Amino acid sequence: MDNVQAELESLGYTCTQYSFSDSNDIAAVAQSAADASDVIYVPTDNTAAANTEIIDNICRPAGVPVIAGEEGICEGCGVATLSISYYDIGYISGEMAAQILTGEADISTMPIEYAPNVTKEYNAEICEDLGITVPDDYVAIATEE
What we know:
The protein is α/β, with parallel strands linked by helices and 145 residues long. 46% of the residues lie in helices and 11% in strands. The chain has a five-stranded mixed beta sheet with strand order 1-2-3-4-5, with helices on one face. The longest helix has 16 residues, at 86-101. It starts with a helix and ends in a 5-residue tail after the last strand.
């Protein structure tokens, strides 16, 4: 969050961080954030992912778009995400584990690796509800019906 905030502030945006300790705090924190914000960024977080309905039930009626850290959160309460691929992360982690187990790499000195790509995705329903026009290079998240 500190990196995201620093980057946004360097572009001239004012940012405030809101945090919660568990699912009991989500509604109050989401309400405070929605009341004070034009847009909310929700990073990849298991508690937030498990409570997207609460976040959506507060932010969407307030007209506050949520930018999500990954597809699952975006599907539940977000308008858009640059989503990570858990498959890619798992694959890279497996390759790194194999290098450690075979002695090809030393865990204390090997470089940190990242998934190579993100996917530009959006939640069509929430974007429509909020009147948001989505850039052409984003793809709609497939929703279950």
